[in-house]
Write a structure and sequence with these properties.
By secondary structure, the protein is α/β, with parallel strands linked by helices. The strands form four sheets. A five-stranded mixed β-sheet has the order 6-5-4-7-8, sandwiched between helices. A hairpin with a 4-residue loop joins strand 14 (698-707) and strand 15 (712-716). Helix 1 (5-19) packs across helix 2, helix 2 (23-34) crosses helix 5 (55-84) and helix 11 (162-178) packs parallel to helix 15. The chain is globular and about 110 Å long. The N and C termini lie far apart (70 Å).
Length: 729
Amino acid sequence: MKLTADQIRKLIPYIIEASSLKPFQVEHTVELLQEGATVPFIARYRKEHTGELDEVQIRTVEEQFTYFCELEERKITVLKSIDEQGKLTPELQQQIEASRQKTEVEDLYLPYKPKRRTKATIARERGLEPLADIIAAQELATGTAEEVAHPFIDREKEVPDATAALEGAGHILAERLSNNADARAMVRRLTKEQGIMTSRVAADQKGQVTKFEMYYDYQELLKAVPSHRMLAMRRGEKEEILCLSISAPVEQILAGLKSRLVVRNSIFSSLLENIAEDAYKRLIATSIEVELRLESKERADEAAIQIFARNLRELLLAPPAGGKRVLGIDPGFRTGSKLAAVDATGRFLEHVAVYPHIGEGRIPQAKQDLLRLIKSHAIEMLAVGNGTAGREMEIFVKETLAAAVRQLPVVSVSEAGASIYSASDIAREEFPELDLTVRGAISIARRLQDPLGELVKVDPKSIGVGQYQQDVNQGMLKKSLDAVVESCVNYVGVDLNTASWALLAYVSGVGPALAKAITRYRDENGTFNTRKALLKVPRFGAKAFEQAAGFLRIRDGKYPLDNTAVHPERYKLVEAMATDLGVTLKQLVADSSLVGRIDLKRYVTENVGLPTLTDIIEELKKPGRDPRSQFQTATFRDDVREIKDLKEGMILQGVVTNVTAFGAFVDIGVHQDGLVHISHLANRYVKDPNDAVRAGQIVKVKVLSADAQRNRISLSIKEAEKNDADTLK
């Protein structure tokens, strides 16, 4: 169902209220999104339109717009259904139209929703609804309920006595109460605020040792359960080790329901109280618990996905080593280590397999092959995968270089997801004739040159920087991670003439089909000399050009601004700046000192404000710059290769591989990441681990404990910092 322009305009106030943004910001952002503009494009090139909203704010508007569109469509469906039943009143219509939450709409729709056959349905068929109405009216103060029910006895309709009649009428009233939107909202609110999440070990698992032991007898306020604990308990339940439930404040809830049902003293008061209790226990409690468990799962998913997204962003934006000739090494023991040389652009040159770890007799040949590749391809850096045999291979390479009096950087590179890439369609397209492990070695080399350019070829879920990623909503996870990759790619910019189609696919406005069309055109016609030449690519139209051009770079092209983030729509403006300074455009781009002479206020117009002009000036100061940090590497101790080499109190250097809600994992070169608990991240209180460290960061850690049998390492950044401070004293 597609909403009309009037219906969409009606949603704007909802988004303004939910986002706390200014009306013009929401209106213009929604308008741009409706026109097909991407989030990176809006954030970078439409700052005046949105009041300088950043990507996070724009995505929030996008998410809220989607939510309220879905809500509006649901309202239309619900109103139509109730109207077709002839039960739509002006008051009910107003309530539904004023709802801001999907749960509100569903609660209001519940009494009119087509239902399966229930006890209340059967009671109505037996003619007991009039009796239910009499009881609900509560107008009789004398006599007994049984006397009132007597006329409704009908053996043919299976109502043999007054007790059966009252029971049937009670089912009708219980269903009415369970369908009451206000009553459900009250139960939901109290359960949400005061409910206790309870976890118990399953009966057949008692006495068993599992990773869920801490949850065998566990309770916590529902609203306070952190994401990682909620996901852990749900996994335990899925594996049939734990039994989960929500304990609600039953007495308070029943008091609230009884007060709604018993409005005055009558002969039916005690009966109505029993009906309220039946309505809660039989009809309301379970559905609200299911609803809140789903809501808490969604909340936990959202928190876990945010952590995953932050970690992924840090890894994708890891500093690149740049245009160096690299030898990539995919290490192994029995199957050998695969060595692959690539040139400064990542082009594959040669590969060889060496076997230095399966016998002394193979070592001389391995050294010879290693040194030959380094010499023949003028290798400048070596990238060693950090998987199986990674540390052993790193030591072998360093010792070989030292003996040959060669000083080259040897860098440990994460292999996370490399095997996924090696077997992927993208890898087969790139290197159809090569073995999987050779493709892996090439990927490891390229990861050192440019992590972003290589990691985009791997499903983000396979990079392994989240927690419980298999347990969260997979659709929501994919959407979030794809948005992170898109954001990072467009933040850095892409070399139009060297980028793979996998990288180009994430450029604003491009996508996989156009990305492949670009690389095909490039293969057939040679490199692009100008951005404008993109319009010659089949199906690459004006809209795609508008969205993509500013994020694509052409180095050493015909037009100087094509190697900057200045959008082609502003080229004439920059040309005017150069003319006003009395220099050529080429001189302006080449000499940053000229930029300081530009008076921005002269160029402010109705469509171009200071935010855009400031961005242009920043680009002219450093044309074609890479916004990522300077490249650094961690140094692992040569005498520490396995967990058994660790000693309590050791101070080591490592790389943060993953940040979770409870701490951070650090690679210290022993094949098993160590955990820095959140309490040991810094010499201050840390609520969010991301406030203290980030994925990819090089840190100093102190070994607190190392359990080789259980493969567990406990580390402390706080103690390492304290040790440094004490040393300085």
